Amino acid sequence: MNINLHAKYQPAYCRVNTRLLYQNTVHVLKSLRLTHQSLSILLIDDEEIRSINHHYRHIDKATNVLSFPFNEALDTIVSTLPVNELGDVFISIDTAYREAQEYNQSFHERLTWLIIHGILHLIGYDHERSPEDALTMFNKEQDLLTYIHTQRRCPMTKLAINVDHVATIRQARGINKPDPVAAAAICELAGAEGIVVHLREDRRHIQERDVRLLRETVTTKLNLEMGANKEIIKIALATKPEMVTLVPEKRQELTTEGGLDVASQKKKLAKTIEKFMAAGIPVSLFVDPVPKQIKAAHDIGATFVELHTGAYCDAPTEYEQEVEFDQIVTAAEKAFQMGLRVNAGHGLDFHNTAPVAALDTIEELSIGHSIISRAVFTGLDQAVRDMKEIIQNASSMY
Ligand code: PXP
Question: In a 3-state reduction of DSSP, which class is residue 32?
Answer without folding.
Answer: coil
